[in-house]
């Protein structure tokens, strides 16, 4: 079974930059007037927080200190909770999208 090298940057971390193009709803052409648009901001905030949590978890794992490994239990619980929140927000986005745009039919 292949495993991730614990003390190296994860593949998605290597090229990450704070200056990446915006994924804010307005940058993607999504109207702020749509009720589901606010959830995109919430999702992005949680994903940014998860990136930091994963980085700290990886650092603690690499250091192999008792206190860091014990802290990982709490960090992983927080990460799990955040993932559940993202799933719920995406469900709300999907439902809102169907309500707002589901009634519009394509005209030919």
Automatic annotation (TrEMBL):
One of its GO terms (cellular component) is nucleus. Residues 38-104 form the Protein EARLY FLOWERING domain. The keyword Nucleus applies. It comes from the Eukaryota. Its main location: nucleus. Keywords: Biological rhythms, Nucleus. It is found in: Nucleus. Pfam families: Elf4. GO terms for biological process: positive regulation of circadian rhythm; rhythmic process. Residues 1-26 are annotated as: Disordered. InterPro entries: EARLY_FLOWERING_4, EARLY_FLOWERING_4_dom. Belongs to the EARLY FLOWERING 4 family. This is Protein EARLY FLOWERING 4 domain-containing protein. It comes from Klebsormidium nitens (Green alga).
